[in-house]
Amino acid sequence: MYSAIRRNKVNSVLIILLFIVIVGGLGWLAAYIYRSPGIVIAVVVISIGYAAIQYFAAGKQAISMSGAQRISEADNPRLYRIVENLSITTGTPMPEVYIVNDPAPNAFATGRDPAHAMVAATTGLLDIMTDSELEGVMAHELGHVRNYDIRVSMIVYGLVVAIGMIADVMMRIAFFGRSNNNSNPVVLVFGLVAMIVAPLIATIVQLAVSRQREYLADATGALTTRHPEALASALHKLSEYGRPLQKQSSSMAHLWIADPLKPGMMQKLFATHPPIPDRIRRLLDMGGKF
């Protein structure tokens, strides 16, 4: 487990470097096409500044996009005390606790480290889970916090948003740029390639860090509660009652414990989560070892 935490910290650095390299490469191409070396310098400086802002602000941004509302113990004693007990058990700082008003059962964690972590559960999750199942789900989310998955996820989230913005800007330059550039076919090809390739790169990065992260958080949650069957039962309910969130965002889909998007061919092909039956099987296999 400690090696996984160390690997997540290394991945955070590598993802930031990858982000700067991709954006810098796009800036270099734009500078080459427009014959203005200042463009690449400006793009790299802006990208570094953007990465720094994302490091400190992406967690709050994800909370805002999900529509989650922060609660105190008085607002929902059941959820708050479960998170508090898990935090005391694991020696983890108490995270901020949020509730998302959505009938779809789901939960996620975000933040840059355990001292600045946030966990959220939907009202749908609170409605269908027993106490032991809810404890298993929140132990899974605190597993993301303890393993520093939240930092990697947050950086990936910022990367996906940034690449989407760059792809959009490139497309606009290609089709609606200055009139003297409209006749340049290189500009049009550049915009089209950026528009098609950039989101694919973002998706590949999401897939690379998301699937194993879920297995590790399941194992961490089971180790915390010593009751892997409860988390397995919760995952079974999520698969049975699973439905897309009302307020969907593909850029933060990898943060949730279950895929929050409406299922479709492309979502299945580029799924950010491992199959729930595989996760349940691993947990049940783990149960006999406690």
UniProtKB/TrEMBL annotation:
Q: What class of enzyme is it?
A: hydrolase
Where does this polypeptide localize?
Cell membrane
Provide any one GO MF term from the record.
metalloendopeptidase activity
The membrane-spanning stretches of this chain are: 12-33, 39-58, 154-175, 187-209
Q: Which residues constitute the catalytic centre? A: 141
Its Enzyme Commission number?
3.4.24.-
Annotated membrane topology is:
Multi-pass membrane protein
Q: Does the keyword Glycoprotein apply?
A: no
A single GO cellular-component term on record:
plasma membrane
- Record flagged with keyword Cytoplasm: no
Q: Which family does it belong to?
A: Belongs to the peptidase M48B family.
Official protein name in the record:
Protease HtpX homolog
Lineage, highest ranks first: Bacteria, Bacillati, Actinomycetota, Actinomycetes, Micrococcales
Gene transcribed to yield this protein = htpX
